[in-house]
Amino acid sequence: LTGFPPDVVNIIPGDGPECGYATSVHAHIDKVACTGSVEVGKKLREAATTSNLKCVTLELGYKFGDKLECGSERVDNKDYFIKATIF
């Protein structure tokens, strides 16, 4: 990637069992970022805590339609994501 020293940022595309698990348990990798399902995120987080407590960034979930159900409540998807991402 442009602007980063060599070996600081590496993008490793591949299947989860081979790629994701191996990077999340490797002791010399300090951070793992993943976009995927909630199930995969849980596995990566668990694997990362058993190695070196590396930093883990996860973007998880599924694509929703117009509405999202939160418990017994239906929430307008757009409003939910706007409120959920405010810092």
Q: Nutshell version of this structure?
A:
This protein has helices spanning 16-25, 38-51, 77-84; strands at residues 31-36, 55-60, 67-70, 73-76. The chain is an alpha+beta fold and 87 residues long.
Strand-residue proportion: 15-25%
Gyration radius over CA: 16 Å
What is the overall shape? Answer: globular
Assign a percent range to the helix content.
25-40%
What is the tally of beta strands? 4
Number of helices: 3
What is the SS-derived class? alpha+beta
Elements, N to C (H/E): HEHEEEH
User: What is the number of independent domains?
Assistant: 1
Largest sheet: 2 strands, parallel
Query: What is the mean predicted local confidence, pLDDT?
Result: 76
In terms of per-residue confidence, which ranges show pLDDT below 50 for 5 or more consecutive residues?
Answer: none
Strand order of the largest sheet: 1-2
End-to-end C-alpha gap:
28 Å
